[in-house]
Amino acid sequence: MLRRTARLFACVVLSGSLGCSGRSRADAVPAAPASSAAPALPAAPELIARPDEAPAPSSLDAARRLALAAPAGASAADREIEALSRRLAKAPGGADLWSALGFAWIEKARASGDPSLYRRAHACAEIAIAQAEGDRASLDLLGLALLHDRRFVEARDAAERVLSRDGGDTLALGTLSDAELGLGRFEAAVAAAQRMVDLRPGLPSYARAAHLRWLQGDAATAKRIMRLAIDAGDPREPEALAWALTQAAAMFWHEGDHEAADRGFERALAAQGEYPPALAGRARVALARGAWGRAVELLERAHRQSPEAEIAWLLGDARAAAGDRAGAARAYDSAVAAGRLSDRRTLALYYATKGLERDEAVRLAAAERAARGDIYTEDTLAWALYRAGRLSEARAASDRALALGTRDARLLYHAGAIRIALGDLEHGERLVRAALDLNPRFDLTGAAEAEQLLARRTFRGGRAR
């Protein structure tokens, strides 16, 4: 049980970005602007049904039915779910058994990429807490389930309840760090992660520390710490190792070192076959290389397991590049459907990137910003506002997105385009060039737009490129 909980809190998603010897292709990214306070945003109507807003099971009987639903698969997690479910179906069972079942559901959700399975873990937590309200494992499970539903305030509260009784619970510290990061409270996230490292140095704590350093723009240190995380991995826990390898590979991707990134994603797949995030990572590399057919094949494999909005969007881009317009349209429709169901931030960014549904993109992004304050939510809001022509507001959100100094080409391009539109031509052009120097193929749509924007600036300025 202890090994499983360590594995699980290593695998919480820390950011909405992709991103292992690595050189940086842009050693001098322009300095981030000073952070600015978020302006008051108009109340956003609820446009979509979110899993975390759906009614909780109306009774413990309903929660029990959800928790004991049969898994589909033959993995170790499936076998454990089946064994625990049989025991609980025969006898009431205590909080410890329900918590164990919930952690098994989270393990399966992580490996499969199916976000709906976290609702089953949440149901297990509800039953366990009803039986033993202060049970630490039950509260830890609840915190994880809430975190994956992006209910960051409630996840933080669950973690703090545990930590008020046991300040050394590293699973709760991991939940606390991730919740604070999701809420945009970066220093609080760092403090919780540092406590984790101090108490239990290992894959979960090192991986968190590496990610936080990467967000601050210190890629070299982030990669060194991530190496410690990978070295601390347990071969008996392949999904946690695959996750760490995928995060490490993403750091190289963000630097435009596609060869090193591809090797890292390949290692992740060797640790955990058909791991959706690693398949998507290799597909990004294939897209950057112009290998459209290879990208389509990888993304179709990833999408079969994990039909999330971002993977469907990438699949649409790959099919469009390969000339399959009908297939691309189907994938984009799938991205919109998945986004409406459970990922309004990705849906808002998709609309803004493609220049679609501009008012809805702003409403979606503003609603998400009301619930979370991380830099990727700020960037999504900035880009949606930019597409809607609300440039001053876009600039403020973009400044907040750059406040940590994160070396992400997408953030830099968005910031540069917004500044150019506002007439800050020199600074804007410098940011766009920095984006392309850092990762010239960071996104099929964005990279092409960035190149076109610089070409127009060069033509109008009468300069040779």
Name of the CATH class of the domain at 346-465: Mainly Alpha
The CATH H-level superfamily of the domain at 346-465 is Tetratricopeptide repeat domain
CATH architecture of the domain at 346-465: Alpha Horseshoe
Helix percent reads over 70%
Average pLDDT number:
87
Write up this protein.
Helices cover 71% and strands 0% of the residues. It has 465 residues and is mainly α. It has a domain at 346-465: Serine Threonine Protein Phosphatase 5, Tetratricopeptide repeat, CATH 1.25.40. It is built from 24 helices and no strands. α13 runs antiparallel to α14 (276-289), α19 packs antiparallel against α20 and α23 (425-438) packs across α24.
Break the fold down into its secondary structure elements and pairings.
Elements: H1 2-10, H2 60-67, H3 76-90, H4 95-112, H5 117-131, H6 136-148, H7 152-165, H8 170-182, H9 186-199, H10 203-215, H11 219-231, H12 238-254, H13 258-271, H14 276-289, H15 292-305, H16 309-321, H17 325-342, H18 344-354, H19 358-371, H20 375-387, H21 391-401, H22 409-421, H23 425-438, H24 444-461
Helix pairs in contact: 1-4, 1-8, 1-10, 2-5, 3-4, 4-5, 4-6, 5-6, 6-7, 6-8, 7-8, 8-9, 9-10, 10-11, 10-12, 11-12, 12-13, 12-14, 13-14, 14-15, 15-16, 16-17, 17-18, 18-19, 18-20, 19-20, 20-21, 20-22, 21-22, 22-23, 23-24
Signal peptide: 1-26
Protein name: Secreted protein
Keywords: Signal
Task: Describe the structure in brief.
The chain has 24 helices and no strands.
